[in-house]
Amino acid sequence: EPHHAWTGLALVVLAVADRLDAARRGADQILAEARERGAALTVATVLAHRAFIDVRRGDLISAEADAHAAIELAADLLGAEFVVVLAVPEAVLAGLDRDATPDYLRGLLDHTGVRDDTEFLARDLFRHASGVLRAAAGNHDAAIEGLRGCALDHPMFGSENPAFVPWRSAAALSLANLGRHREARELAADELRRAQAFGAPRAIGIALRAQALVGRPAERAERLAEALAVLEPSPARLEHARVLVDLGATFRAAGQRSAAREPLLEALKLAARCGARTLERRARAELAAIGVRPRRTERAGADSLTPSERRVVELAATGGTNREIAQTLFVTEKTVETHLGRSFRKLDISSRRQLPDVLARAAG
After folding, report:
1. pLDDT at 141
2. Cα-only R_g, the chain
3. Nearest to 156 by CA among 9, 297, 4
4. Which residues of 123-144 are buried (b: 16+ CB within 10 A; e: fewer)?
5. Which of 76, 88, 159, 334 is most buried, most CB within 10 Å of its CB?
6. Residue 139: which of 114, 164, 170, 168 has the closest Cα?
7. For 193-218, how does the pLDDT look when each residue is reduced to its tens digit (9 = 90+)?
8. Cα torsion angle, 15, 20, 23, 24, sign
9. What is the pTM of this model?
10. Do 92 and 55 contact (CB within 8 A), yes or no?
11. CB-based contacts of 1, cutoff 8 Å, min separation 6
12. Which value, to the nearest 10 degrees, does the dihedral of the CA atoms of residues 53, 58, 59, 65 take?
């Protein structure tokens, strides 16, 4: 498909500019047309781009499913390495928030054979995800070194714009963890200047959050409130939830239990909608510390589906037959039957006619 690079770039530009709903609609339309034509490379490419979009929208279940689907499809296609370079970082970022272990995600990075010095323009996404993963595993020195590698690239695309790769804020958080507070504050301030110059709310909110967390503790609540004001009206639900948890935790640490309650409860609700298990667990821990214990959500429903199962049930919910689903996903009908059987047990349903309602309830 000679045009897929240009359509993919258009989707990325929309996503980076926070036109996330428009980007998602465009991706859905291109994907439907590509599946109808049986254009496997375009399908894999658009799935990777849709994962990029959905990580930013905070739809982690869909992002994880699409990223893994793109990786699996690309394994059987010639000339599809660029798909993996785009899909793997989104699988890692979604996986971290979905509570996958750093060891599993590092294995995913290593198994794909993609290196962080790959020649593709999207290499900064790979470097950023690898650095965030190292930080999650507590290896902050390696995280900083890898993230700073983003600055070595030609600024034509990516490294200069935190709306594409917010590597400076990630590195600032690791620097603060190592007690290198002056460097952390300088890097966070640099990212905020760049984000404000571009103007996308998600990037500004991420930078403001980092600046709050690496800055003076006495100013943290005020700085987090600034980030919240930017993110609340934006489509970036996951970043909104992160700031709410941080704000609630800041109030709780200051002994302001009643002030902590509302942002933490709102964060818990948003994190559950995003499928962000790691953040949800942190919100629950903070709520428990102020004596609030909300009812636990069950993991036996849509949130417990694997990425492969999720793809199959979504297509089945729109009326696809097993043969049509198999052709769409480029798998066997037997594979489709297996995934549907497991999904029905997890969802506690007996008919595919029940799928639309179950998935709609899970989406909130």
Report:
1. 97
2. 20
3. 9
4. bbbbbbbbbbbbbbeebbebbb
5. 88
6. 170
7. 999 999 999 999 999 999 999 999 99
8. positive
9. 0.85
10. no
11. 34, 39, 41, 42, 45
12. 70
